Aspartate carbamoyltransferase
Amino acid sequence: MSDTPRPVFPHRHLLGIEGLSALDLTALLDLADEQVEVSRQVEKKKSTLRGRTQINLFFEPSTRTQSSFEIAGKRLGADVMNMSVASSSVKKGETLVDTAATLNAMRPDLIIVRHHAAGAVHLLAQKVDCSVVNAGDGAHEHPTQALLDALTIRRNKGGIEGLTVAICGDIVHSRVARSNMLLLATLGARVRLVAPSTLLPPGIEGLGFETFTDMRRGLDGADIVMMLRLQRERMNGSFVPSTKEYFRFYGLDQEKLSWAKPDALVMHPGPMNRGVEISSEVADGAQSLIREQVEMGVAVRMAVLEALASHLPNR
Ligand code: CP
């Protein structure tokens, strides 16, 4: 397998799914399939990013995204620095733009950014000379999550076009939902949004997505059931009466899952709140792809880093 980066992706940054073509997305997913094989070998190391510096800059907590970007960068041979925002000068009032200028002066090749504000990653990308990857910005986008979800679906269902995917739960606050809606629609899936009306974005029906406030109707005939966490950190006020009530009507248990197709598969981006949006029986059951999503996360992030490698400065 050649370690030479290939120009499969004609963009310098990955800031969102918005604006990417079906060709761009398929190229990344094909490349990610190759990285799954690399990650399953005893020898996992490649040299695509040898000599390159990758900074992971996370202003919000993360388990899956930060660790998988670190593993992905290291598997490709990069020097990876995890910047701890909690102990950085951000805590002393330094602005995002000044933080970006400071890091840029250290000549990184890639910066991976998670930020609580929608649009912050786009702003940072304008202030630095290197490639930038959005690891989640507010309720806006989480492109590598959508890509890893698509890779997981594609590997289990043989394709995405024509599938019915029900995205269920806190849609209005979810960057995962937004990126998935864009990606799945671009690749030809039928996307349904299932949630109480308080958790559906206003005016979303006009954008061509089917919406349901009833789980039975929303799950009927679904190939994929994608559950979302209630994102309390982004809620301003009360959106559901109680978590007990929410689970009763919208939490995915074995009975509600039986309303989808018999071979329906269950996904969740994590972190999960068991007993709120999903039961343990379903999360750990035979139809769950949740652990596989985590494995695909490393492969997708390797693919994204490798695809951006051909755009790095000084090549
Ligand atoms: N799915 C996801 O983004 O998880 P983390 O917040 O743990 O990175």
The mean pLDDT is 94. Residues 143-293 form a domain with the Rossmann fold fold (CATH 3.40.50.1370). DSSP finds eleven helices and nine strands in the chain.
